[in-house]
Design goal:
Elements lengths: L2 E4 L5 H7 L1 E3 L13 E6 L4 H18 L5 E6 L11 H7 L3 H6 L4 E4 L15 H14 L2 E5 L1 H11 L4 E15 L13 E10 L2 H6 L3 E6 L3 E9 L2 E6 L9 H14 L16 H16 L22 H21 L6 H8 L2 E4 L1
Helix pairs in contact: 2-10
Length: 355
């Protein structure tokens, strides 16, 4: 089933990958009667902004089955952006004021790279709190990804995150610790990538009414939920949306920061990700980087660590997001009235169908 996006707001990379057609009249939308409308609030840093779009579009496309989805892109204005991405934001994204004036069934809110130990000191904090409070009253369910999950529990329940001794980085196996519709019929172990320096902990979450659904011996809490106002808030400390190459890109980025002396420690290898041959080659490369600490050394980054990787977490991610979408659709169907796609066409103007 195609994803629906606003006319003229289709990101170029998704347009090129999937193709698109314009809805020229309301009849183009009549087959889609029960559309789930999702606000994707993408706050990722500039280098990951468009990759994150593609990751969530691809995951939702795979998970939706026969359920039509309408997506609209937003980003917090308080996040510093370079001149390079400004044209893309202006062309494909809407302002937060538009979010408050529109209707959505669900929201996905991503994190961003933190710069302050206390998230409440980040320049975008007040704006983010406003979006979280909007979601509590105006969505059936909201997904908070990584840093956004930490911000959400801090804002609503005062739960502080804890600094880790090293970056929690790699692909980790989790077990289901509680039955819930979101994890129904998902095979164990549940595998998701993680990439973070901080964590929130099960005992503190459960003491404040959160239900932990999946947990890893190595990575800690993975997925947890809580009803907040009208909305079921779904929190991930990991990144089920990540693409197969994402951890490799992050690892290369962190090595470059080491070589440029922007960090003093060499980054740890992502766990459960590279095969034995690539792991051995990367250990040799680390020795070279320590002895010749210049960014030009990246020219010798091992070819065996730059190939096409298999996403071992696709099944877990698709199954969980499929359950999430079905939960939203079932709650939507319980409502006495909800707008059809044809009605949305008249309310909001022409749309693009991206299939």
């Amino acid at each position: 089933m195609p994803l629906l996006l606003d006319m003229g707001r289709v990101p170029t990379r998704w347009r090129e990958k999937k193709g698109f057609c314009h809805g020229e009249s309301h009849s183009d939308y009549l087959p889609f009667t029960n559309v789930v409308r999702i606000a994707l609030v993408n706050n990722m840093p500039d280098p990951a902004l468009e990759d994150t779009e593609m990751q969530f579009f691809g995951l939702l496309d795979a998970a939706s089955g026969d359920l039509p989805l309408f997506l609209k892109l937003y980003s917090l204005s308080g996040i510093a952006r370079s001149d390079r991405v400004q044209p893309h934001l202006k062309r494909c994204y809407f302002g937060i004021d538009d979010l408050r004036n529109d209707h959505f069934d669900a929201a996905i809110i991503t994190g961003t790279e933190p710069h302050q130990p206390d998230l409440r000191q980040e320049p975008y904090w007040a704006e983010l709190v406003g979006v979280l409070e909007w979601a509590e009253s105006n969505t059936i369910s909201t997904v908070l990804s990584c840093l956004a999950a930490h911000a959400g529990v801090l804002n609503s329940d005062g739960i502080q995150r804890h600094r880790l001794s090293d970056k929690r980085f790699g692909v980790f196996d989790s077990r289901k610790v509680r039955e819930h519709p979101l994890t129904a019929q998902i095979a164990s172990p549940v595998r998701f990538p993680h990439s973070r320096w901080n964590e929130v902990r099960a005992d503190e979450l459960e003491a404040r009414g959160y239900a932990v659904l999946t947990q890893s011996e190595r990575a800690g809490v993975d997925l947890f939920v809580k009803q907040k106002g009208k909305s079921l808030f779904v929190h991930f400390q990991g990144h089920p949306e990540y693409g197969a190459q994402t951890l490799q890109k992050e690892y290369r980025r962190d090595i470059k920061r080491f070589l440029r002396r922007e960090r003093e420690t060499y980054p740890s290898l992502p766990e459960g990700y590279f095969d034995p041959a690539a792991t051995e080659a990367l250990a040799d490369f680390e020795k070279r980087a320590w002895s010749d600490r210049r960014e030009e050394v990246m020219e010798h980054f091992p070819a065996s660590a730059e190939g096409l990787f298999e996403s071992t977490w696709t099944s877990s991610a698709t199954g969980l997001y499929g359950n999430w979408l079905r939960y939203i659709a079932s709650r939507q169907a319980q409502a006495t009235t909800f707008p059809s796609a044809a009605q949305l066409y008249h309310q909001s103007g022409k749309r693009s169908l991206v299939s």
